């Protein structure tokens, strides 16, 4: 018989991108979470009854201050977090408006080139999402 601890925690997020205001090159947004001192893509747990696309948009807006326009679905990432399985569904998303304000949850964001973003990400599993974004945008 399975326990509630076997049921994956459901989360959603985005690989948020924009065209650089300076030169028009592609930039990827990473968030810094002081609680974990890590750099990652914006993401978070779904609320009860919330569907994954709505959760991804909400989490990105909460963590980055930017309104995302969802694009292609990206690979789902599965891992163990605090002893429980977790599934995070991701989308490519263009930042269409907004601006960052630091919070307790996310104190900094960076807009980086895809190469720099891959190098800055704390978890190797998050790096493949940058490649998936480039593929989805037909830039590979």
Key structural traits:
single chain, 140 residues, alpha+beta, Nucleoside Triphosphate Pyrophosphohydrolase, seven-stranded mixed β-sheet, 44% strand
Tell me what you see in this structure:
With about 140 residues, the protein is of the alpha+beta class. The protein has one domain: Nucleoside Triphosphate Pyrophosphohydrolase (Alpha-Beta Complex). About 25% of the residues lie in helices and about 45% in strands. It contains three helices and seven strands; from the N terminus they run E-E-E-E-H-E-E-E-H-H. Strands 1, 2, 3, 4, 5, 6 and 7 form a seven-stranded mixed sheet that branches. Helix 2 packs antiparallel against helix 3. The longest helix has 13 residues. The mean pLDDT is about 95.
**Mind summarizing the main beta sheet?**
7 strands, mixed
Shape: globular
Cα-atom radius of gyration: 15 Å
Q: Which CATH architecture would you pick? A: Alpha-Beta Complex
Instruction: Work out the helix count.
Output: 3
**Annotation, overall tally of beta strands:** 7
Strand content: 35-45%
Could you name the ranges where pLDDT drops below 50 across 5 or more consecutive residues?
Answer: none
CATH class: Alpha Beta
Order of helices and strands: EEEEHEEEHH
Average pLDDT: 95
Tally of separate domains: 1
Distance between the termini: 45 Å
- The proportion of residues forming helix, as a percent range, comes to 10-25%
For the record, what is the CATH homologous superfamily label? Answer: Nucleoside Triphosphate Pyrophosphohydrolase
């Amino acid at each position: 018989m399975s326990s509630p601890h076997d049921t994956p925690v459901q989360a959603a997020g985005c690989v948020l991108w924009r065209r650089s205001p300076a030169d028009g090159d592609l930039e990827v947004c990473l968030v810094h979470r002081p609680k974990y001192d890590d750099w990652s893509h914006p993401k978070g747990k779904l609320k009860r009854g919330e569907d994954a696309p709505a959760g991804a948009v909400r989490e990105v807006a909460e963590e980055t201050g930017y309104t995302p326009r969802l694009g292609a679905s990206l690979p789902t990432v599965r891992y163990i977090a605090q002893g429980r399985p977790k599934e995070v569904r991701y989308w490519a998303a263009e930042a269409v408006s907004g601006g960052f304000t630091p919070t307790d949850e996310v104190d900094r964001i960076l807009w980086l080139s895809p190469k720099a973003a891959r190098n800055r990400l704390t978890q190797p599993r998050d790096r493949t999402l940058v490649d998936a974004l480039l593929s989805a945008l037909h830039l590979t």
